[in-house]
Amino acid sequence: MHLELIALLFLVLPRLTSPNAVEVHQVQEPPQFQSLSASSASSQCDFTHLHPRRYAAYHLPPPTDQFSPSISIDGVLDEKVWAEVPWSEPLQDIRGPAFWSQPWFATKFKLRYDQKFLYIGAYLEETEVWANVSQRNEVIFHDNDFEVFVDADGSTHNYKEFELNARNATWNLWLNRPYRDGGHENSTRVDPKHGFDMLSGGMRSAVFVKGPINDPSERLHYWTVEIALPLLQLASHSSSKVPPVSNSFWRINFSRVEWPVRVVMDGGTGKQHYEKKAGLSEENWVWSAQYAVDMHRPEWWGYLQFRPRGESPPMLSDEEVPLDPEWGVRYVSFQFYYAQHAFHNATGTYTSSMEQLLPYFTSREAMECTKLLDMSATDKLFSAQIGLRTSVDDVSEFVASIEEDGYITVEKVSKASVITAIE
């Protein structure tokens, strides 16, 4: 089967509806690049055209006699500290901007932070505002919902997820690793007594709707949310510090689930209500594209940069947030990871031979930009150290270590030590 057909089949896979399901690994775009010359390697191997979206979060200012910067979590984004910062780009289809279907309702967010909390304000355009789930820490995405995903250290492990619907029913959980890699949910939904719960750290949320929900006779146009997520819980079991280091990056993404509904008349009461259309799947709209119907691919999440305390928000909304200098080596490391899993699916084992692995790369550019420094593999495990080739005889100053479960770390090293490792 051609790689182009394989990629197309993956694009039409439905969203996971079971929290503990494992989705098939999707390859990225099929090979489309010519062999890299020495002069082009440096420019093409940075992969900036695939860099996820970025947003800068500004620290709340200290209070003064005339101004208190606190955010009242009531769902109404009317505080001055919200007006000071720009909206994000609108959410897009989870499969990326090139996918044929794109959102017909606008969704956007703003971020602020202080020493203890990450604050999220979001606007969701909607003409049919409904929600059924009312209990905390139930599976919320069976309703229309808004979701937040945070990977504090970029390892793709020990990340946190938060969901809420228009009733302000919430679900928060900690995943030790993605479901595709054998990960599992830790929350009070699965372990009521000992499960992970950010409520103990001061988590708060609120929803504002200009009118009652679940009422088709109401002419509603949007709902807004405010969320305060405790930084200590977001960063738990990671290497990130709290308060965050100035100008540091955390990985973050936002998702909106939108179900098609119809208006149904209740025969007993004569009242109308919304009901999901049978046989139709939901839409999944995200901030930074996942290139698959799967939010649990943290390597594709966007970047949150924490601006220094005392720095004022920009006057213009199009301020440029820096690129992650580690992005290139992270990208090729996950192309290597995808290739190893494709090889394992075909043969039942991983390989320590780059030559055997080459046919399983789906991007020729990524393959040629990968400088393998070290690799070991068995039928169940693999680990590799990878550099980013910047010319024929050189590699980048960043080296990634990646394992079969997707755990990745990146270290900045001297060029001399990298060259020694290669030799």
From TrEMBL:
Residues 73-161 form the Carbohydrate-binding domain. Keywords: Signal. GO terms for molecular function: carbohydrate binding; hydrolase activity, hydrolyzing O-glycosyl compounds. It comes from the Eukaryota. Residues 1-19 form the signal peptide. GO terms for biological process: carbohydrate catabolic process. This is Carbohydrate-binding domain-containing protein. It comes from Phytophthora aleatoria. The lineage of its organism: Eukaryota, Sar, Stramenopiles, Oomycota, Peronosporomycetes.
